[in-house]
Amino acid sequence: MFAKIPETKMHWIRWGLAIGWLMLILSLFYDPVSAFLTEPYQFLGPKTANSCYKFQGQCLPLTPYPLGPRIFWGMVVPAAIIILVLFGHEAWRRICPLSFFSQIPRALGWQRKKLVKENSWLSRNHLYLQWGLLFVGLNLRLLLVNSDRLLLGIFLTVTILSAVTVGFLYGGKSWCHYFCPMAPVQMIYSEPSGLLTSEAHTAPPMSITQSMCRKVDSQGQEKSACVACQSPCMDIDAENAYWSKINQSDRKLLYYGYLGLAVGFYVYFGLYSGNWQFLSGGVWNETNQLATLFSPGFYISGYAIPIPKIVAVPLTLLFFSGATYVIGMRLEKAYKRYNKRFKRPLSLEQVHHRLFTLFTFVSFNCLFFLGVRPTLGWIPFNGQNVITWAAILMSGLWLVKAWQRRYEQYIKERDSHLLRRQLAKMSIDCSAFLEGRSLDDLNADELYALAKVLPGFTHQSRLQVYTGTLKEAIAQRRISPNGSLKVFQTLRQELGINEDEHWKSLDQLCQDYPELFVPHLGQISDAELTIRRPIKETFSNPELTMQRPLDAKNSQSLSLLGKGNRKQLPKGSRDEAKTIQRPFSKKQ
């Protein structure tokens, strides 16, 4: 949906939202107006002149307060999460103010071309880093910036400056992919897709999809501005990024632990104040949070627990996030045992996906009913009910859609257009078996079935189709050579192609079409670069010499595969390319 909105219109929308955010931050430093709305009998104020809120056994008077923190935490942040669930990652990434600010150096021509290498520490551990920053951010909110306008203004200003700095130091959307503390929240509520997210994997080849980086040329045409800052990229195909990394351990921490963070964050308000109505009233009046850092952090059953707030907050978040992480891991083991016992044909990806979906559904509703619902007292009662039922309906529809999604189905849908093109090139009259339908009328499952059982379709024909599909996917940069074995596993199984034949097909493509593999060299680290296949003396490419210090003597060689995949090469292929094990050093 949002992917089809022209970049020129989105540019003005981003400017408007960025200016609005800057004005909100400015109001945190100076706001002589909005406090009027929180006075007694006003729109956002108490209904009586002598209203008070209970805090650690006392009834403190409600006093007028500027609205900046309440607008940001109580309206802007929940609205962002609703956008993610409803419209998906593609909508939020195109309007996110922080993403906009991080691209200012690029717009001014100041951005450096440095990219995060695929196998660097940051690339391997960025989700742990972002999780840690999110944890620190929630602690800072509870301790310092939830309602203290000055500290909140400083906090948001520092965050914007951090985004601009990263946008200057690294190319592409490196801030969004590797540093942004809100990225884990975006991933949780937008993966594998939102309710109204467009499908990038079924788009025509070379399309500009979802929130893909783009620019407008002098003729007003949109063009890709991708610099391959992350692969697979969530902006190009969010569902592909989701399935590609679903079995990694950092995803378990993300989905299982986030539920505890969300619950622990809102439960702490009750543990701190001694009542569960604190969030709906007095929290926005606590304007000097620095003064409470060493006051009692818990007040339970009428007793103040002598644990300083500065210690109580991280203890609470650690306890709840750790508890839900342990629960998630145990549920995962139990689910796997259940599948094994009853011989259910669920893949590991599907087990993780269903548990992640369940935890996301629960975390969204906990966030709404613990955090958002108590702050809606300024809306008429019927309006509160409408919002509540809308949230329940939206999360329920999302659960049904996500629960039914399968990795195998995604793979078939993604590769169906490539398979369709290859079948059309074969000298076989398929129309005789389709009862008047054409190849374009077949869905993904029907195409796979046709390729498997088509009369006269020999094994050599299937191998030819597979090689052609592999070639097109690499040419379109939908996959990298070192990831092709896993990506096309489903297609190989359907066509009866083994791994040895896959590697031989890849070797042949390397010799016949070496130019297809040049763009992928930028994603391979120095340690992984090896001499893979000799290329014709006449072949040269400026991009090669820019990416790696190749001299004329060695410009005839390049690497295709990373270490992990070189180990998997069949014996015959290793004999044909004995130089594959030799590392390509910088001296060469």
- Distance, first to last CA: 50 Å
Q: Residue share in helices? A: 40-55%
Sum up the overall morphology in one term.
Answer: elongated
Total number of helices: 23
Report Rg: 28 Å
The neighbouring-strand order within the major sheet is 1-2
Q: What are the segments in which pLDDT stays under 50 over at least 5 consecutive residues?
A: 522-588
Mean pLDDT: 82
Task: Determine the strand fraction and express it as a percent band.
Answer: under 5%
Secondary-structure class: mainly alpha
Q: What's the total number of strands?
A: 8
The total domain count is 2
Main pleated-sheet profile: 2 strands, antiparallel
Transmembrane segments: 12-30, 71-88, 127-144, 150-172, 253-271, 310-331, 351-372, 378-400
Keywords: Membrane, Transmembrane, Transmembrane helix
Region (Disordered): 540-588
Walk me through this protein's architecture.
By secondary structure, the protein is mostly helical. It folds into 2 domains: 2-207 and 235-403, no CATH class; 407-581, no CATH class. It is built from 23 helices and 8 strands. The strands form 4 sheets. It has a two-stranded antiparallel sheet. The two termini are 50 Å apart. Keywords: Membrane, Transmembrane, Transmembrane helix. The chain crosses the membrane at residues 12-30, 71-88, 127-144, 150-172, 253-271, 310-331, 351-372, 378-400.
